[in-house]
Design a protein that fits this description.
534 residues; alpha+beta; Glycosyltransferase; 3-stranded antiparallel sheet; 17 helices; 13% strand
Length: 534
């Protein structure tokens, strides 16, 4: 449920079992209340387990000698910085914000100090030798830096905005393009690697909208022109590394549509050709994509755990043209997830990474096209293969910190926030249950604490606008999707139904946190209901 135009949201504090007349007046049904409570148990288990992981496992992996986070047993940029560090940050953002701006933030200072190699482009740190590895090749250097920016720093910037991680992202990108070596008819680019260039498109478009600096748009257009000038170009790999160019070109098209540029029609035509070719050659009968667009031998014939990442670009296209060109196809794909063959499908064997990537992409798509069968599949896969929620919380085995396990933490957080509709309880105490359920005209929030609780519920805002500078909430990878958001300059009335006391708060105040005092084991429910302004 998104921010509602020309509306005021009323937040009403009610007991879980509502009086019949209140239920009728507010349009609440008991099934929605039941679903909100289910969501609170799902999110509560997952985020409490994430907090345990953060404190019991992950934070201990910050090396006392260097200050680097050695989640993979090392510090490099293609894996540790790109895939381990950002989700350490996400875990702290959601469950212990003080750690984020304390020792976890200090990791950034450490890698900046120790690892810059070519101007501010970093190289891996050799822990055994106690120094930076200066033997890295140019291509490996660019690949690692691009991975860090796109998979690592962007994910952090999407929730922290223009903090120090943003400055690091910006300085690396400036120097990657300063040292670009590959000559093209459109100017120099840093690589011919399709994964790197897809990542660069996703980084440059964000930097442009966040700063307004034309150089980032110019560099992104070099890449756009480079690929769209080739009328035969279609990415062959539809998994992991091939997904980046699809989402990257989609996001560039989104920015061009905001600018109403003269490239828009050409880019749009070429991107549709690419998308249609992928659907024609690279999908099975259910709409699921293969690892390779045409090859079907060995692993190439398996289904891609990046299917959802790819459909992100398609949804961008639909938003741009203002028509559901691909919507029915994507919705049918989501419904087909109910088929038995997609339950516990071995995307990458038994690795948690395959499940985590497939579900992450699915959540991005469900954020735009809410299909029940898709939500049911996501819940089932997370419970069985990612959060493993059948184990008692206090003794449950925790994830490791290497990149594949860290991706499991990432998807667990994303799934939990889907069930809270983006709301966060601070502090997050172990055993807290927080969930939300959107209806056609309201948001139902329910919270329960295992002990007496004195804290806040943080409401989300349209981060795409306030943090990232986009006019619209364009579908994109490496973000926590927006579910329910409040407008910073809107007014909200908060009513305690049991006491009938009301108070008025701005959206900014709700984003800063709605204060709550809860008794142990007492469940409290919030009804968030829009009212049209007079």
């Amino acid at each position: 449920m998104r921010t509602i135009k020309r509306a005021v949201v009323v937040v009403v504090l009610v007991a879980l079992v509502l009086a019949p007349n209140l239920s009728a007046r507010a349009g609440i049904d008991r099934e929605s209340l039941r679903q909100a409570e289910i969501s609170s148990k799902i999110a509560g288990y997952s985020l409490s387990k994430v907090k345990r992981w953060l404190h019991e496992v992950a934070i201990k992996r910050i090396d006392p000698e260097t200050g680097l986070y050695i989640g993979d047993g090392r510090w490099n940029y293609r894996d540790t910085a790109a895939d381990c560090y950002p989700f350490l940050c996400w875990a702290a953002h959601v469950t212990d914000i003080d750690l984020l701006y304390g020792p976890i933030r200090d990791v950034l200072d450490a890698e900046r100090k120790l690892c810059n190699h070519l101007d501010r482009i970093p190289a891996r740190f050799d822990l055994k030798k106690g120094k930076r590895d200066d033997s890295v090749s140019y291509d490996a250097l660019i690949f690692g830096a691009s991975e860090y920016v796109k998979d690592g720093l962007i994910a952090i910037v999407e929730v922290t905005g223009k903090a120090d991680w943003f400055e690091r992202m910006r300085e690396i990108e400036d120097d990657v393009w300063k040292h670009a070596r590959v000559e093209t008819p459109f100017g120099k680019i840093p690589s011919t690697n399709v994964e790197v260039n897809g990542e660069q498109l996703q980084a440059l478009t964000r930097l442009y909208t966040m700063t307004g600096e034309k150089k980032y748009l110019e560099w992104a257009r070099r890449l756009g022109d480079y690929y769209f000038s080739n009328e035969d170009f279609v990415p062959e790999r539809l998994r992991d590394h091939g997904c980046e160019i699809i989402g990257g070109l989609g996001l560039l098209l989104a920015v061009e549509s905001e600018l109403k540029s003269d490239r828009l029609e050409v880019y749009k035509k070429q991107l549709k050709r690419i998308f249609d070719t992928i659907l024609e050659k690279g999908c099975n009968e259910d709409g699921m994509m293969y690892n390779h667009i045409t090859k079907r031998e060995g692993s190439s014939g398996r289904l891609s755990d990046g299917w959802g990442y790819n459909y992100v670009g398609y949804i961008c296209y639909d938003m741009i043209v203002g028509e559901g060109v691909y919507r029915s196809h994507i919705e049918r794909t989501l419904r087909n997830l109910s088929k038995p063959k997609y339950q516990n499908y071995p995307w990458e064997g038994t690795s948690i990474d395959g499940f985590a990537d497939s579900v992450e992409g699915g959540i991005y798509v469900l954020n735009r096209y809410p299909i029940k069968e898709g939500f049911d599949w996501v819940d089932s896969e997370v419970a069985a293969n990612i959060a493993r929620s059948g184990d008692p919380l206090e003794t449950a085995e925790l994830w490791g910190t290497m990149k594949l396990q860290a991706n499991g933490v990432r998807t667990t957080i994303m799934h939990a926030l889907m069930h809270t509709q983006g709301l966060i309880a601070r502090p997050w105490d172990l055993g807290t249950e927080l969930g939300a359920r959107a209806t056609s005209n309201s948001l139902i929030v329910t919270i329960k604490a295992s002990k007496n609780y004195n804290g806040k519920i943080i409401f989300d805002v349209p981060r795409h606008k306030h943090l990232m500078g986009f006019e619209k909430d364009w579908p994109r990878m490496n973000t926590l999707p927006e579910w329910f958001t409040v407008g910073l300059d809107r007014t909200y009335r908060i009513t305690n139904v049991r006491t009938h006391k009301t108070q008025t708060r701005t959206g900014k105040q709700l984003h800063d946190g709605l204060e709550l005092r809860l008794k142990a084991a007492e469940r409290t429910t919030l009804l968030v209901e829009p009212i049209h302004n007079l």
